[in-house]
């Protein structure tokens, strides 16, 4: 095990999953005579976690789209551009202020023991204190500078931009604390707890509150407040859910050892910059477009970006579902199992995400008509970005392989390469081409980052990251969706009518596939994996490890 992947100090054996019982680690269950192989066990475990993540991501995507409709319909191109820019300020500031600690928690906690007698709680002060200090400093500075920043970021919005910017900066410490505790929640509770907060509470509450503000005639400040309040609710929920498993308040040691600080931040600091880039990629484009081309173009680009990010939710749901599992596998040197999990979930993500992006590429006009006729100018930008996202989702979560393997420096190199391309091309293309120029710059940045990350991950893991199943799934997806899209365009053009025809053809094709015995068998196998029926039987005197229950 290299220094980069060495777990923090503590008596946690490398091959023992972190226990969730407050009294400390439980004895391992005796293996059954017919126990499945390690790779099979890990892939079944990833299936169960992945399904939970996908369900949450689907819900989050639905309500995220509803939020975009509420913002664009309620505030128009100019107002929504200012709204998206204010959200971008919070998103980028939060990503900078977390200093990579959220990924550090997902890397460190699975390698430690939970409970009152464990050493996991010692990581909390290490991970929380520096980011919160930085967040408070940024909040104070941002509130003081809001009057000066508003004309540049939100100029021409027809509203007092200083007020929503002030609210945005003031909320940064709350959003930072929520982000960090969400990462801890994913590691110490079964995934359904994380899904409930991240993929249900936040995305459901935001369109409700923002819509209420818009219906009441509230301006940007009221709408932005509606977007921010759910973060405070999520923070309270995380505090309640995290304290018990970590043994906080029940005798768990909270004073870090000296090497806790060095081990954690040696990993997290390189991630700090890449996290800011990852979270802010779209919002950097929104802010650049707002400054270089005006709020109206920023509103169009923001609306396009909402569709693009919604299509990525399947991959995000899979990533947060299995990141702790990848950390544990790579931490004990089981690279073959980690690569098997990666290949399986990449195939899932490809099958679920590519149809979305292929339809967005062909029927961008139809999707943008749902926001209003003034947003249809973003159709070329939609096509460009949708095609770029085929690359992003096609390579899978290679970034997670790098990060959970402790190679945050390589991940930073890949993200810096992508950011350099995005910003340099954006400064050149946005003044002349507006939202389309921003999309071209971001698309080339996406391709650069992902292809760089693939090369690094393949070298680090030392295992194949692509297999025949992935290639067959990709070819079948392109052929099936491409045929449906072609029929839709011929029958109804690229507007809403053509989209409806394409969706009808796809639905009919899916129903037809369900009649095939091989497809039905594959679905039955997956459902058995989800329910965990093929897990090794626990010993009579012990209980199954908590990790097998969906963590």
UniProtKB/TrEMBL annotation:
InterPro entries: Poly_Biosynth_Transport. The keyword Cell inner membrane does not apply. Its main location: membrane. Residues 1-46 are annotated as: Disordered. The chain crosses the membrane at residues 51-71, 83-109, 121-145, 165-188, 200-221, 227-248, 351-371, 377-398, 410-430, 436-457, 469-490, 496-516. It is a multi-pass membrane protein. Residues 17-38 have a biased composition (Low complexity). This is Lipopolysaccharide biosynthesis protein. Keywords: Cell membrane, Membrane, Transmembrane, Transmembrane helix. The keyword DNA damage does not apply.
């Amino acid at each position: 095990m290299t220094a980069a992947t060495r777990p923090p100090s503590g008596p946690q054996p490398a091959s023992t999953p972190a226990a969730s019982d407050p009294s400390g680690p439980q004895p391992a269950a005796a293996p059954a005579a017919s126990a499945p192989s390690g790779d099979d066990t890990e892939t079944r475990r990833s299936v169960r976690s992945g399904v939970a993540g996908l369900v949450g991501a689907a819900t989050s995507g639905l309500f995220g789209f509803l939020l975009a409709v509420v913002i664009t319909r309620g505030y128009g191109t100019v107002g929504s551009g200012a709204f998206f820019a204010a959200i971008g300020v919070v998103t980028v500031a939060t990503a900078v202020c977390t200093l990579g600690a959220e990924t550090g928690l997902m890397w460190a906690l699975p390698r430690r023991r939970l409970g009152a007698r464990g050493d996991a709680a010692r990581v909390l002060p290490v991970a929380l204190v520096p980011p919160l200090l930085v967040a408070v400093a940024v909040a104070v500075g941002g509130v003081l500078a809001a009057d000066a920043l508003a004309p540049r970021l939100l100029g021409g919005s027809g509203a007092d931009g200083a007020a929503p910017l002030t609210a945005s900066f003031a909320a940064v410490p709350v959003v930072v604390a929520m982000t960090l505790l969400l990462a801890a929640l994913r590691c110490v509770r079964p995934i359904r707890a994380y899904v409930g907060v991240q993929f249900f509470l936040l995305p459901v509450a935001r369109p409700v509150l923002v819509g209420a503000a818009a219906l009441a005639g509230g301006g940007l400040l009221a709408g932005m407040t509606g977007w921010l309040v759910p973060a405070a609710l999520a923070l309270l929920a995380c505090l309640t859910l995290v304290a018990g498993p970590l043994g906080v308040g029940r005798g768990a040691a909270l004073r870090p050892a000296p090497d806790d600080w060095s081990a954690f931040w040696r990993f997290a600091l390189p991630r700090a910059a890449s996290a800011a880039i990852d979270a802010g990629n779209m919002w950097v484009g929104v802010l650049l477009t707002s400054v270089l081309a005006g709020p109206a173009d920023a509103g169009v680009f923001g609306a396009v970006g909402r569709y693009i990010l919604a299509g990525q939710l399947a991959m995000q749901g899979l990533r947060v579902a299995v990141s702790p599992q990848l950390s544990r596998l790579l931490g004990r040197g089981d690279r073959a199992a980690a690569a098997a999990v990666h290949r399986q979930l990449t195939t899932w993500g490809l099958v679920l995400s590519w149809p979305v992006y292929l339809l967005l590429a062909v029927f961008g006009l139809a999707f943008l008509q749902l926001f209003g006729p003034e947003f249809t100018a973003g159709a070329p930008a939609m096509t460009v970005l949708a095609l770029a996202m085929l690359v992003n989702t096609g390579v899978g979560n290679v970034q997670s392989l790098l990060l959970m393997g402790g190679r945050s420096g390589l991940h930073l190199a890949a993200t810096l390469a992508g950011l350099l391309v995005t910003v340099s091309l954006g400064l050149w293309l946005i003044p002349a081409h507006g939202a389309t120029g921003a999309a071209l710059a971001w698309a080339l940045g996406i391709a650069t980052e992902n292809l760089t990350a693939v090369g690094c991950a393949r070298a680090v893991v030392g295992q194949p990251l692509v297999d025949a199943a992935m290639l067959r799934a990709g070819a079948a997806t392109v052929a099936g969706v491409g045929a449906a899209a072609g029929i839709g365009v011929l029958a109804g053009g690229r507007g809403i009518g053509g989209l409806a025809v394409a969706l009808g053809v796809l639905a009919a094709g899916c129903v037809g596939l369900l009649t095939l015995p091989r497809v039905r068998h594959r679905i039955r196998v997956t459902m058995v994996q989800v329910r965990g029926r093929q897990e090794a039987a626990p010993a009579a005197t012990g209980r199954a490890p908590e990790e097998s229950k969906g963590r």
